[in-house]
């Protein structure tokens, strides 16, 4: 029996032993990887995708907000693909509008089409069926290379068929003629022309639509390989045509646009009707070798050969019923064709009348627009005349004010000049008077000197008499004269 100490030591060792599922995050483990440890720590905190991803901690709008980045990846991818498809559709629409604007003018005397056959057209494709499971592309290439140059060899080993495209239509016919029915690894090859998925059928064409116009009109949707208007045994157009594009997307684009909108080729308001072309093989037909000979229905149907039924027999009775049903179908089809022809003529008449009314209304609208334009021009001219008249009045008023200001300034200058002249005259008069006083004073001074000398002589004669003052008269004269000089 183990002691408690041993048990405690074993328990301590178990506690120290790292768990196996966390070896990648413990440094003491042998599989320690710092980068992986950091990523696991980041995941545990909710910072990255994984089983431990927690969007609550990776929410840019807060823990309680809504995280718009947690939408399913497929939903975001679909949304991005939708936006990209919308952008591509807008680009295609812009290119289509530019091409239509370039060809919307008169289409008279179009140049003839190049009749030289191009290489690797869409109609030069063959279907190869009834292949064995062990047939490879190399085996087919060895057989096909004897008939001409080929490309785009596609082999489906699950369903045992293949497609191949030759350079010219003659090479396709040669390969079909020589290889059809040959044995390849135990099975007979079945070769026929493959339907061209890039072909469309154009209906409701007018009598003036040619191959050149059909090619010229539908080249806005993509590269056109061949465009033909179907004719009857007398060479008259049947109102239908076939257009073969280089790519299937161009054909689908033409079908979609012509279905959504009305596409006109001529001046007539008869829109073309575009639909996928259903290939019909009228060259080879249905050979006997393609029939299921082991089928009981085949054996039952071939139990009797061609014959003429006897009158009033069981076969003749039901044969007559079939003929009556087919005659009824033909009569209804003919009646419907006549009714459709009458409706077309009626629609053409209504179209011409509506066009006349539309053109008349357009002329009225144009005349009305011209009258409105003329009235608008008249109002603009009247407004311009009023503005010119107001401007002329403002100019005249401004000139009058300037003249008045100039006259007032001239009057002020005249008054100022007159005042200055008066001041100058007064100054000259005062100057002259000052000169006269100076002269008088000088003369008086001279007289005074002479008088003083005479007085001195007289004083010597009289002596110093009492009560006589010599300078009294002189002093009084100076006192009287000094204020007069200061006055000026």
Automatic annotation (TrEMBL):
<keyword id="KW-0694">RNA-binding</keyword>
<dbReference type="InterPro" id="IPR000504">
    <property type="entry name" value="RRM_dom"/>
</dbReference>
<dbReference type="GO" id="GO:0003723">
    <property type="term" value="F:RNA binding"/>
</dbReference>
<protein>
    <submittedName>
        <fullName>NOPS and/or RRM 1 domain containing protein</fullName>
    </submittedName>
</protein>
<feature type="compositionally biased region" description="Low complexity">
    <location>
        <begin position="51"/>
        <end position="72"/>
    </location>
</feature>
<feature type="compositionally biased region" description="Basic and acidic residues">
    <location>
        <begin position="73"/>
        <end position="86"/>
    </location>
</feature>
<dbReference type="InterPro" id="IPR012677">
    <property type="entry name" value="Nucleotide-bd_a/b_plait_sf"/>
</dbReference>
<feature type="domain" description="RRM">
    <location>
        <begin position="124"/>
        <end position="196"/>
    </location>
</feature>
<feature type="domain" description="RRM">
    <location>
        <begin position="198"/>
        <end position="279"/>
    </location>
</feature>
<feature type="region of interest" description="Disordered">
    <location>
        <begin position="1"/>
        <end position="86"/>
    </location>
</feature>
<dbReference type="InterPro" id="IPR012975">
    <property type="entry name" value="NOPS"/>
</dbReference>
<dbReference type="Pfam" id="PF08075">
    <property type="entry name" value="NOPS"/>
</dbReference>
<dbReference type="Pfam" id="PF00076">
    <property type="entry name" value="RRM_1"/>
</dbReference>
<feature type="compositionally biased region" description="Polar residues">
    <location>
        <begin position="1"/>
        <end position="13"/>
    </location>
</feature>
<dbReference type="InterPro" id="IPR035979">
    <property type="entry name" value="RBD_domain_sf"/>
</dbReference>
<feature type="compositionally biased region" description="Basic and acidic residues">
    <location>
        <begin position="14"/>
        <end position="25"/>
    </location>
</feature>
<keyword id="KW-0677">Repeat</keyword>
<feature type="region of interest" description="Disordered">
    <location>
        <begin position="449"/>
        <end position="469"/>
    </location>
</feature>
<feature type="region of interest" description="Disordered">
    <location>
        <begin position="374"/>
        <end position="398"/>
    </location>
</feature>
């Amino acid at each position: 029996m183990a002691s408690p100490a041993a048990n405690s030591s074993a328990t301590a060792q178990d506690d120290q032993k790292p768990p196996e599922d966390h070896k990648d995050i413990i440094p003491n483990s042998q599989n320690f990887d710092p980068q992986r440890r950091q990523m696991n720590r980041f995941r545990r905190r909710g910072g990255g995708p994984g089983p431990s991803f927690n969007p609550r901690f990776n929410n840019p709008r807060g823990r309680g907000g809504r995280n718009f980045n947690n939408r399913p990846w497929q939903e975001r991818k679909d949304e991005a693909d939708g936006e990209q498809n919308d952008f591509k559709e807008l680009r295609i629409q812009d290119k289509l509008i530019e091409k239509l604007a370039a060809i919307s003018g008169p289409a008279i005397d179009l140049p003839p089409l190049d009749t030289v056959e191009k290489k690797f057209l869409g109609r030069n494709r063959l279907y190869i069926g009834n292949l064995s499971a062990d047939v490879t592309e190399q085996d087919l290439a060895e057989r096909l290379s004897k008939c001409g140059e080929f490309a785009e060899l596609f082999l489906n080993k699950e369903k045992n068929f293949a497609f191949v495209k030759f350079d010219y239509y003659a090479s396709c016919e040669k390969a079909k003629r020589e290889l059809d029915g040959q044995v390849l690894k135990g099975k007979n090859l079945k070769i026929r022309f493959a339907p061209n998925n890039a072909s469309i059928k154009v209906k409701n064409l007018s009598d003036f639509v040619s191959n050149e116009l059909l090619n010229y009109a539908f080249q806005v949707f993509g590269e056109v390989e061949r465009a033909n208007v179907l004719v009857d045994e007398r060479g008259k157009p049947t109102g239908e045509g076939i257009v073969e594009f280089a790519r299937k997307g161009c054909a689908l684009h033409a079908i979609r646009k012509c279905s959504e909108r009305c596409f006109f080729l001529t001046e007539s308001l008869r829109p073309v009707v575009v639909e996928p072309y259903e290939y019909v093989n009228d060259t080879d037909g249905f050979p006997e070798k393609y029939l299921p000979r082991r089928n009981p229905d085949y054996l039952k149907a071939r139990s009797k050969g061609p014959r003429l039924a006897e009158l009033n027999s069981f076969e003749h009775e039901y044969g007559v019923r079939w003929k009556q049903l087919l005659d009824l179908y033909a009569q209804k089809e003919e009646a419907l064709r006549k009714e459709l022809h009458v409706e077309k003529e009626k629609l053409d008449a209504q179209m011409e009348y509506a066009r006349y009314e539309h053109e008349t209304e357009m002329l009225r609208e144009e005349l009305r627009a011209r009258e409105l334009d003329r009235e608008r021009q008249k109002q603009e001219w009247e407004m311009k005349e009023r503005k010119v008249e107001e401007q002329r009045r403002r100019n005249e008023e401004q000139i009058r004010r300037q003249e008045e200001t100039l006259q007032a300034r001239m009057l002020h200058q005249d008054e100022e000049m007159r005042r200055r002249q008066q001041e100058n005259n007064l100054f000259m008069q005062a100057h002259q008077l000052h000169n006269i006083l100076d002269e008088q004073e000088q003369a008086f001074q001279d007289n005074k000197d002479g008088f003083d000398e005479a007085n001195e002589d007289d004083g010597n004669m009289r002596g110093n008499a009492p009560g006589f003052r010599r300078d009294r008269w002189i002093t009084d004269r100076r006192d009287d004269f000094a204020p007069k000089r200061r006055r000026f």
